[in-house]
Amino acid sequence: MVSSAAVDDLDKEKPHQFFLLGMPIVIWFDGKPADGVGKFESKKNRKSKKVDRVGGEWRAFVDECSHRKVPLSEGRVEDDGSLLCSYHGWRFNGDGNVIDVPQVDEDEMAKIRANPKSNCNKFPAQLIDGILWVWADNGKDASLEAALTAPPVIPRPPGAEELVKELPWNWRELPYSHDYFIENVVDPAHVTISHHGIVGDRYDDQSLQVEVVDSLSKTGFSILAHTNMNEKPTTTTFTAPSSVDISAPFGDGGCSQLQLYVSPSRPGFCNHIGRQVIVKDSSGVLPQFLKQFAVPMPRWLQHLVSSVFLNQDGLFLHKQERHLASTGQYSTMKPGCEEKSDFSKLVCATSTDLGVMNFRKWMSVMAGGHIPYKYGDLTVPPTSNDVVYDVWNAHTKNCKTCLDALKNLKKARFAAFATSAFVGLARPFGVVKSIVSSIVLAAVGLLMNKVMGLFFKYETSHADNN
Q1: Which residues contact 117 (CB under 8 A, 6 or more apart)?
Q2: pLDDT (mean) for 166-188
């Protein structure tokens, strides 16, 4: 099972396209409106514009209609809990069975239903703690295999409920592959350098000692990092094939935990879902380095500011992977690629790279040396800074939380500019006060405009990060 989506931020009214192992998949919710009768009819007939769907499940299909193979993610979720293909109107239930073809009579409909080709390819899926886990196979034994395979869910640190603060899930498609994501997060040496100004300072003492706690095996490994930044060593645990737990204890029983999940989406990209869990110690006081992460803020703003952190090393990983693949030095795109190179001989590793080298050894020995993409072009895409900085396609377009916030900010920006113009022209507070008020309102509108731009793109530069 692999993590595919944090569903609390998805719109239940629409199907959503994601990628998994090179396959386009459609994720959708088959519940019915809480205040309706659940009929297949125009949504214009609804009593209320705001509708909450209940009583259903999140589903994952191959993103193609069984009729003519067009994407179901361009379709609709109807009020009877069916997924409608917007090309010819074929409708499917949550089990992937076709339930209606509007152009044919009952006799032909019965024949279509009896044809196995009419069903959508449904993946086994289960929802755990807000994350939809998908079994990336839909063969005859897929349901049994999925039921026998526990998702690598990261356990929460121990602590009384009132001392635990779980931050919302952050998620997006990142412009580098699954293995480069894990290589990065099991590398404690990069943190205070790459994330200067957010986590530590690149000009402070960077002394670091790394030791292996749990030796490399098929199921993963653990390392312990001793730094001058934390009062106690940090444990990083990789659980194969797709989760990393970074736990930093502090004080008397306190802990900061990063829960990180990743799945291969398509060549050169991966789906990342992560959050921070903070357990306060007996004093209830957070260390200084954690206070900035615990500041209360709306979920959409947390999604926005995550770009600041992710893009700081995103450009390195994006270009590293594409450079190594294009020059033939190293690749995990398809079988046989990694056999032509030895990562340990390729790089100049140090004692602090134990996590990186353990993971690359796991990738080579335990995982067959490549990511098992199902189909598609296995060529690594070209390097592009714009792809790294692209927030809209990586996250916003699929996040209802952010889309709703963007819509509200647009309204607020219009109100600010309109009020600024009115006050500047009508001058209801006298000349001086009206002009000052008009300028302040215009500045608020411009600030909103800048914030809105972060839903689309966020650029970063280490040369300018002083």
Answers
A1: 66
A2: 96
Distance CA 188, CA 195 (A): 11
* Token couple for 214: 């749990």
Closest CA to 42 of 2, 80, 90: 80
**29 contacts 58 by C-beta, under 8 angstroms:** yes
CA dihedral for 323, 209, 190, 365, sign (positive or negative)? positive
Q: Cα–Cα distance between 411 and 413 in angstroms, integer?
A: 5
Give me Rg for the CA atoms of the chain.
25
Q: Name the DSSP class of 110.
A: H
- Write the DSSP symbol of residue 338: G
Q: Which two tokens stand for residue 290?
A: 């954690």
Q: Transcribe 44-94 into DSSP letters.
A: GG-S-SS--EES--EEEEESS-TTT---GGGSEE-TTS-EEPTTT--EE-T
Q: Which residues pair with 128 in a beta bridge?
A: 131
DSSP class of residue 214?
Answer: E
Q: How far apart are CA 381 and CA 318, in angstroms?
A: 10
| Length of the chain in terms of residues written | 466
413: left (phi over 0), alpha (psi -120 to 50) or beta: alpha
Phi first, then psi: give them for residue 465, nearest 5 degrees. Answer: -90, 85
Residue with tokens 């800048």, as numbered in its chain: 450
Average pLDDT over residues 280-286: 82
Q: Which two tokens stand for residue 264?
A: 């291969």
Pairwise CA distance, residues 349 & 357, whole Å = 8
Which stretch of DSSP H or E encloses residue 96?
none
Rounded to an integer, what distance in angstroms lies between the CA atom of residue 5 and that of residue 132?
5
Are 278 and 187 a contacting pair, CB within 8 Å? Answer: no
At residue 251, the pLDDT reads 87
pTM (2 decimals)?
A: 0.93
Is residue 230 within 8 Å of 248, Cβ to Cβ? yes
Q: Which residue in this structure is represented by tokens 């109807």? A: 78
Cβ neighbours around 162 below 10 Å, total? 8
Can you tell me which residue has the tokens 């412009």?
Answer: 175
**C-alpha–C-alpha distance, residues 53 and 34, integer Å:** 6
**Residue 136: CB partners within 8 Å, gap ≥ 6?**
2, 20, 21, 23, 123, 374
Please list the residues that pair with 406 across neighbouring strands.
Answer: none
Q: Terminus-to-terminus CA distance in the chain, angstroms? A: 42
Look up residue 160 and give its two tokens.
């009384």
Tell whether the model's pLDDT for residue 344 goes beyond 80. Answer: yes
Q: What's residue 409's pLDDT?
A: 97
Average pLDDT over residues 440-454: 96
Pick from 61, 50, 53: which is nearest to 30 by CA? 53
Name the residue with tokens 């997060």: 185
